[in-house]
Specification:
The complex is a heterodimer of chains A (about 525) and B (about 270). With about 525 residues, chain A is α/β, with parallel strands linked by helices. Chain A has helices spanning about 10-30, 35-45, 60-70, 75-85, 90-100, 110-145, 165-175, 210-230, 245-250, 265-270, 275-290, 300-305, 310-325, 350-365, 385-400, 420-435, 450-470, 475-480, 510-515; strands spanning about 35, 155-160, 180-185, 235, 255-260, 295, 335, 340, 370-375, 405, 500. Chain A has a nine-stranded parallel sheet. The radius of gyration of chain A is 23 Å and the shape is globular. Chain B has two domains: about 5-80, D-lysine 5,6-aminomutase beta subunit KamE, N-terminal domain (Defensin A-like, 2-Layer Sandwich), CATH 3.30.30.60; about 95-265, Rossmann fold (3-Layer(aba) Sandwich). The chains are: A alpha/beta (about 525), B alpha/beta (about 270).
Chain lengths: ~525, ~270
């Protein structure tokens, strides 16, 4: 696409180089460490499901048992498949059950035993990842059978807490025009160090992300996609302490988009920075393989900080998310970088500022399916003014060619949207899309004018911040409260005890396949 | 005083005109269905005290629901002399106002230690109050520049909580209890307050921090029985807790102070 802001390509290149330099040490750390959740994801990809009578998943029980006896420095796979082969356990499920009862003696096998365990684990993971590949192909086939919705895709949220209530609401929303359904998770699921099991009917302001809930919702939306002749995408949240596992479940159950930010959990949920970055890399490798579009969470920064003053922190975070995403194998078309329409409407020229920010992001990431979030902070309870603000958000979205519009509700901040709130919101976006959908092609900010200058200013501030981050390291910058407003030291927060340095000979058959070190061939 | 009886105001004094919108689970497809739907809306409007009422807009939403906008004349009168105002003992403040009040009234950061005690592993409540993420559109206490938050998480033993509160110099201790089996939330809270009382009674000990408990099953009027300073019940928002802490711990004669910190640069950080 042509540039409308006359950005200096050398400056844009410098911004990317600075982001890469800041991110590289984090990648090194992720390559040399694993986490309990990465190891549990390996078991999930190998097909281990279910939970003990207390609801603790077998993947947790098995990983904990291995950690207690041999440690996880070499990964869970080698000791687990060795025990499976030599201990006469039928499958991972019975092995986990026996291990939970303390009846399994794990060891680090050597020689032929090690080779046997590696081969068996590799074959099991090959089958799991082949299922992800098949899901990706099936998504493509479904899109061909139905159709690809035109952009911007309309993104709507359901959040009843009960998957069986969510399903009809999601289907109704799709019929009303939603292209993407996001099932909001139960508050605090990101802080659970396990993934709940089964279909769930109770949640706090949202519905638990479980494999069965994923499966039920995807099946329902397949039915609706066929009915509508339009592929309806399903979104959930690969964030929090179980990021790698949830990403794996998403791949196994053909979810289409996942919230997956590199720093959100650190800043907003006080999850340990190291844990987050290590988990993030593995989860993004899965998403890359599964053809899942990630959504990043930069919009959140603007709910805590001022949207004008902090505009450059959004760009910096997007550049970091892009670097980490591409390093993990994601294509540009999978980078749903986030931003938001959160400038105080009382500010003069606020809409021009929004246009400048949105167009800047569009031009920095021309091939990314950008996710644009509606106003929340300045929705006051005056629903009439809120409806107007949402219309301006929609207009900015179509003028600057945003790819995914999360639909704003005029009752934002008052209650879970009424049926009528959602219907009015869709009417709003339909009107703007039909009336002004092609306005973007005629939107050329005046050279040297206010919008162009503002975009350059934000890019300049982004470069300054990236330089500062490079001076002290990304972990140092996070510890100093550069993003969001909260200081998060590298050794603070939840989940650090689940981080393990890899030993020489660390074996992760999922990573081997995802990173291309081994092929699936012959595994099926 | 121009009399205590008033009516809604449309464009003329006393016209009583109001606007409402609502959805009924009735279809709006065929002509018969439409007439029935509008009749249903009129019936509801009349029962709500709108007479005459006028359905100005009706729209089917999917096969089973209809949305209405109705204007009408409210037949009810408002008697201002019967309006009662329940006063919260503390004013509800914005984050900027809370910060300002702490800065001027306390002169340093306010230290909050939070935990779930006993066997309770449900941190959803305490996290919703403390995490930046917050809930109901309000940021948690970590968001407040002048509040330093130490969140100890779940299943914290009372002696550990007392020790940590002292080590951190806690001004306030927030305890969340969700599990109510055999009234565990009551006994845990009593045990906690007794332990803080005992610790404060030791020679040379600093004063007892402000004790605040919260959870969906607590009765907010039972603070004295539990030996705590304040109880927050269901649906409490972080802003209410922050306002209370500022009110209780940062006394100032100036509750109406305004502040414009919302636009302060993010890099300054909230927590020390």
């Amino acid at each position: 696409m042509q540039t409308r802001l006359n950005l200096d390509p050398a400056v844009v290149r410098e911004a990317r180089e600075l982001a890469a330099r800041a991110g590289q040490p984090i990648v090194e750390m992720a390559r040399t460490h694993t986490t309990v959740s990465v190891e549990r994801a390996v078991l999930r990809l190998a097909g281990l499901q279910g939970a003990d009578p207390d609801g603790m998943p077998w993947v947790n029980r098995l990983v904990d048992a291995v950690r207690e006896s041999t440690g996880l420095e070499h990964g869970v796979a080698l000791p687990a498949w060795d025990a499976l082969l030599t201990g006469g356990h039928g499958d991972l499920g019975t092995l986990a059950e026996a291990a939970a009862q303390g009846k399994v003696k794990f060891r680090l096998p050597a020689g032929d035993d090690a080779a046997g365990a590696r081969a068996a684990a590799g074959a099991a993971l090959g089958r799991g990842i082949a299922r992800i590949d098949a899901n990706r192909a099936q998504r493509q086939q479904m899109i061909e059978e139905t159709s690809e919705p035109r952009k911007p895709w309309i993104y709507l949220i359901v959040a009843t807490g009960d998957i069986y209530e969510d399903i009809p609401q999601a289907q109704a929303a799709a019929r009303e025009g939603a292209d993407i359904i996001a099932v909001i998770r139960s508050t605090g699921q990101s802080l659970l160090d396990y993934v709940p099991e089964g279909a769930t009917r109770e949640g706090f302001a949202g519905t638990y992300a479980t494999q069965e809930n994923f499966r039920l919702m995807r099946a329902a939306l397949d039915e609706t996609s066929r009915e509508l002749g339009r592929y309806v995408r399903l979104t959930n949240y690969a964030s929090g302490l179980c990021m790698p596992e949830i990403a794996s479940l998403a791949g196994l159950e053909r979810l289409d988009m996942m919230l997956n930010d590199c720093m959100y959990g650190i800043i907003f949920r006080d999850i340990n920075p190291r844990r987050t970055f290590i988990d993030q890399r593995f989860s993004r490798q899965i998403h890359a393989r599964a053809g899942i579009i990630i959504n990043t969470g930069e919009d959140n920064y603007l709910t805590t900080a001022d949207a004008v003053d902090a505009a450059h922190t959004v760009v910096v975070s997007q550049l970091m998310n892009e670097f980490f995403g591409k390093e993990a194998g994601l294509a540009d078309s999978q980078l749903g970088l986030g931003h938001a329409f959160e400038i105080n409407p009382a500010l003069p020229d606020s809409f021009l500022l929004e246009l400048a920010h949105a167009q800047l992001v569009r031009e920095l990431f021309p091939d990314a399916p950008l996710k644009y979030m509606p106003p929340t902070k300045h929705m006051t309870g005056n629903v009439f003014a809120g409806y107007l603000l949402d219309a301006f958000f929609n207009l900015c979205g179509v003028m600057t060619d945003q790819s995914i519009l999360l639909i704003g509700m005029m009752t934002e901040g008052i209650h879970t949207p009424f049926l009528s709130d959602r219907d009015l919101a869709l009417e709003n976006v339909r009107y703007v899309r039909d009336a002004a959908g092609r306005l973007g092609e005629s939107f050329v900010p005046a050279p040297g004018g206010f919008i162009e200058q503002r975009a350059r200013q934000v890019l300049g501030e982004s470069i300054e911040l990236l330089r500062r981050i490079n001076d002290e390291s990304l972990l140092g910058a996070i510890a100093d409260g550069t993003f969001g407003i909260t200081r998060r030291p590298a050794d603070g927060g939840r989940g650090l005890d689940g981080v393990i340095a890899r030993a020489d000979g660390y074996f992760n058959p999922a990573s081997d396949i995802l990173e291309g070190a081994s092929q699936i061939g012959g595994a099926q | 005083m121009t009399g205590s009886i008033v009516r809604p105001y449309g464009d003329t004094t006393g016209d009583g005109r109001v606007q409402v919108s609502f959805t009924l689970p009735v279809p709006f497809g065929t002509a018969t269905e439409r007439a029935r739907a509008e009749g249903a809306a009129m019936q509801l409007a009349t029962k709500m005290g709108l007479d005459p009422a006028m359905v100005v807009h009706a729209k089917g939403m999917g096969p089973d629901y209809t949305f209405f906008v109705v204007y009408g004349r409210a037949t009810h009168l408002v008697d201002l002399s019967e309006v009662t105002v329940t006063e919260r003992e503390f004013p509800l403040l914005s984050p900027a106002e809370v910060n300002l009040r702490i800065r001027t009234g306390l002169g340093r950061k306010l230290v909050v230690v939070g935990a779930c005690i006993g066997t309770d592993a449900h941190t959803v409540g305490i996290d919703a109050i403390l995490n930046v993420k917050g809930h109901s559109g309000e940021k948690g206490l970590e968001y407040y520049r002048e509040i330093r938050v130490v969140n100890l998480g779940s299943q914290v033993a009372v002696p550990d909580l007392v020790a940590r509160a002292r080590a951190e110099g806690a001004d306030a201790v927030l305890v969340s209890q969700v599990v109510t089996q055999r009234d565990a939330h009551i006994t845990n809270a009593q045990e906690m307050s007794a332990a803080f009382d005992a610790a404060a009674g030791e020679l040379g000990a600093p004063g007892r921090p402000l004790l605040v408990v919260g959870g969906p099953r607590f009765d907010p009027s039972m603070a004295a029985d539990l030996g705590v300073d304040k109880i927050f019940g269901k649906a409490t928002t972080p802003g209410e807790v922050a306002s209370y802490l500022a009110y209780a711990l940062a006394p100032t004669g100036d509750d109406g102070a305004s502040a414009d910190e919302e636009s302060a640069p993010m890099a300054e950080g909230a927590a020390a």
